[in-house]
Specification:
The chain is of the alpha/beta class and 291 residues long. The chain has a single domain, classed as 3-Layer(aba) Sandwich (Rossmann fold). It has eleven helices and eight strands. Helix 2 packs across helix 11 and helix 5 packs parallel to helix 6. The longest helix is centred in the last third of the chain and has 28 residues. The radius of gyration is 19 Å and the shape is globular.
Length: 291
C-alpha cells in the first residue's frame, strides 16, 4: 500500500474515524457541518497535513480570486499561501475577473516568498489557461500536485477536469472540486439559451436530469461515480459544505478525488479540525453577542 511518504520518493457532531484495514477500504462521507465561510480553512488544514509528510507540493487554483471581499478568511488562495512551514513550492493562480485578479495580485505581493518558491498568476479563463499551466516544468510525476476548483456557476468545464486528471501517468493531480448544489438547480431551471455553456460544464448532453429528477444525494453519488469511472480516480468522497451555522442547507459538495490511499484519512482529519474551528468561532460569536 502506498503511503504519503511515497510522494517524497516519486512524486454540531463529529463523524466516525475512517477504517485503517488494508484494501479494499471504504471511506464514509462525513456528517458534521463545515460552513461556507470556513471551507477555505478546510482546504488549508488538509494541505498542511499532507505536505508535512511529502515536504513539497504544487498548488493550482483555477478560480483564485476572493469570492467574498468582506470575508478574507474565506479566501482559499490567501490561506494556502500562508501555510507554514512553506513547503508548497510552486503556485499557479488563475482568475478571470479583472477586479478579483487585482485583489489576487495585491495579495501575492504582500506575502513572503521563501527561497525556491514560484508564484505564477494568470488573468483569464482557467479552461483556456489550464494547458499552459500543465505544461510547466514544475508539474512532474514526482511532484505532489493539488488543484482547487472552487467555481462560480458553470465555470469549470468537464474537459478541464479531464486534462487535469490525464496529466500524470502515475499518481494523478489531486482535485478539490466544488459543485454548487445551492445554486445549480436554480440556475439550470433558467437555462433556455446558451445551453452549450452548461454542456461544457457538465460534459454530457444529459444535464437536464439534474433539474428534473435528481436529489442532492443522487447528484453527489452521480458525480462520485463519474470521477471514478470517467476520470479514473481511485478514491472520491463528497464533503458537504453548509450555508451557515445552525442551518441544514447544503450549499456545496466538495469532491475530493485522489489516487493516494492515505489521502482520505488526512482529509477526514482536516474536516474534523475544520468542524472544531467552526464551532469555536460560533461560541466566541455567541459570547460577544451576549456580552
Amino acid at each position: 500500500m502506498k503511503r504519503p511518504s511515497d510522494y517524497a520518493n516519486q512524486t454540531g457532531e463529529l463523524f466516525e474515524d475512517l477504517p485503517t484495514t488494508d484494501p479494499p477500504r471504504k471511506f464514509k462521507r462525513p456528517s458534521a457541518p463545515v460552513w461556507t465561510e470556513h471551507k477555505a480553512n478546510f482546504i488549508q488544514r488538509y494541505l498542511t497535513l499532507f505536505i508535512q509528510i511529502t515536504k513539497h507540493g504544487t498548488y493550482i487554483d483555477g478560480f483564485a480570486g476572493p469570492q467574498r471581499a468582506n470575508l478574507e478568511n474565506a479566501w482559499s488562495a490567501k490561506l494556502v499561501l500562508q501555510i507554514r512551514p512553506p513547503l508548497l513550492r510552486h503556485f499557479f493562480l488563475c482568475e478571470q475577473s479583472a477586479k478579483s485578479f487585482e485583489s489576487l495580485r495585491k495579495c501575492v505581493n504582500e506575502v513572503a516568498r521563501p527561497k525556491g518558491r514560484t508564484i505564477d498568476l494568470y488573468h483569464g479563463d482557467f479552461n483556456l489557461k489550464v494547458k499552459e499551466i500543465l505544461n510547466s516544468k514544475y508539474i512532474t510525476e514526482k511532484e505532489a500536485t493539488f488543484a482547487l476548483l472552487d467555481q462560480r456557476m458553470f465555470e469549470c468545464h468537464w474537459g478541464t477536469l479531464q486534462k487535469l486528471a490525464a496529466k500524470k501517468m502515475g499518481m494523478k493531480i489531486e482535485l478539490f472540486y466544488f459543485f454548487g448544489f445551492g445554486w445549480a438547480k436554480r440556475a439550470l431551471a433558467g437555462v433556455t439559451k446558451n445551453t452549450d455553456t452548461v454542456k461544457r460544464w457538465w460534459g454530457r448532453d444529459d444535464y437536464p436530469l439534474l433539474k428534473e429528477q435528481k436529489t442532492r444525494e443522487e447528484i453527489s453519488d452521480l458525480l462520485v461515480d463519474r470521477f471514478k469511472n470517467e476520470l479514473a480516480y481511485k478514491h472520491v468522497i463528497a464533503y458537504p459544505i453548509y450555508k451557515r451555522e445552525h442551518n441544514n442547507i447544503v450549499m456545496y459538495h466538495m469532491l475530493h478525488a485522489t489516487d493516494h490511499d492515505d489521502a482520505p484519512e488526512l482529509m477526514n482529519r482536516a474536516y474534523r479540525q475544520a468542524v472544531r474551528y467552526s464551532q469555536k468561532l460560533a461560541e466566541q460569536l455567541t459570547l460577544l453577542r451576549e456580552g
